[in-house]
Design goal:
Elements lengths: L1 H23 L4 H29 L1 H14 L3 H7 L4 H30 L2 H32 L2 H4 L1 H18 L4
Helix pairs in contact: 1-6, 1-8, 2-3, 2-5, 3-5, 3-8, 4-5
């Protein structure tokens, strides 16, 4: 549920990202490519910290912490529009740390599903997660296309950032008994 809510916001985010960084912030394509490339490095680092994070916090706490830190960086895009002089550092941190912690969350969540689901059901369970998560991204992108017809891009950019805390609250509510 939390991943689907976040996926909805991510769809809005992905649909607007280039409009924000190139049109609104005026960043050049090389710099934008560098910033986006930092997300790949962040994801790799996120994969590397899963083991130590789980060992230190336990699985449930590590899932909650990784997701909470990851979605906090969703505020980087709208904040970059408010304080454009800090846009590049904000966007780089979002790619490095936000993508890193979301990657750690995704790995941890998948590990829980693989460990708890009977083997005979695992394929259907993972397919359902992919359908709801991926479907939410597509729906979010379509919502973004509709919203930018009615509202300024800067206003629409807050949607993904606000979806993160909602998704985090849902996640905490769902795993509260295991923390």
């Amino acid at each position: 549920i939390a991943a689907s809510i976040h996926g909805l916001g991510s769809g809005v985010f992905m649909a607007l990202y280039m409009v924000v960084v190139i049109d609104a912030l005026g960043l050049g394509p090389g710099l934008v490519g560098f910033i986006i490339g930092a997300g790949g490095l962040g994801a790799a680092l996120g994969a590397l910290v899963v083991g130590p994070l789980r060992a230190r916090l336990g699985t449930a706490r590590a899932i909650v912490m990784a997701f909470g830190v990851g979605v906090a960086f969703d505020f980087a895009v709208p904040l970059s529009l408010i304080i454009p002089e800090f846009a590049v550092p904000l966007l780089l941190l979002a790619q490095l740390l936000g993508d890193g912690f979301i990657t750690a969350f995704l790995i941890l969540a998948l590990s829980v599903r693989q460990g708890r689901m009977p083997q005979a059901r695992l394929g259907r369970v993972n397919a359902t997660f992919e359908l709801f998560g991926g479907g939410a991204v597509v729906i979010g992108a379509m919502i973004a296309a509709w919203l930018v017809l009615l509202l300024p891009v800067a206003a629409v950019a807050w949607g993904p950032a606000l979806a993160g805390p909602v998704a985090f609250a849902v996640l905490v509510g769902l795993v509260r008994q295991e923390i």
